[in-house]
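Collaborator request, handled under Task 6.
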Amino acid sequence: MLEGRIRDLWIAVERLGRPIVNHRNPGAPVELLERAFGSPVPSDVATWFAWANGVAYAADQTQDDVALVPGYEPVSVEEAAALKAELEVPEVEFLGSYWIPLLATGAGDFYAATYVPGQETSRVVSVMIGETSRIAFLSVDQMVSVFVALYRDGVFFVDGEGILQADDVRWLEREEEAVREA
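Structure tokens returned to the collaborator:
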């Protein structure tokens, strides 16, 4: 079940002593998502935001302090709506008309759930500035499962300076495998 996998993801982050566990905002109700993005929103997106509505920011915080996965922080419903409104390029491949950002970097890259209204699950698209967008995962559940495995397998790790890092080649390979094998 997705909620259990999200819990496992946060436990993996906590095991590494990552500061984000102390900055996670309480979850958002589905009504807030529906006001921001229209209704209905897929249940997997509602479950994602029910666990954490972004992070709390502090003056002395670094981006690494709020990274759930290397470089990416969970966005709040408000931040997701603002990011979607900012992106004036409707031609971004794979996004379509219905999408909601889930994780984002300070540089503008993000993972977004893209969906068809009325469906319970979403695909997850990776959008990186200056690169072609791509389907990264076939569902939010698959994304979370892969992230948990990346922590478990040491692909996501804390370096000698205490920074959350990734073996980017292996990370991308796992995303490609997930989409290809499903």
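The cover message to the collaborator said: "The chain has a mean pLDDT of 92. The first helix runs from residue 2 to 15. Please let us know whether this matches your experimental observations."
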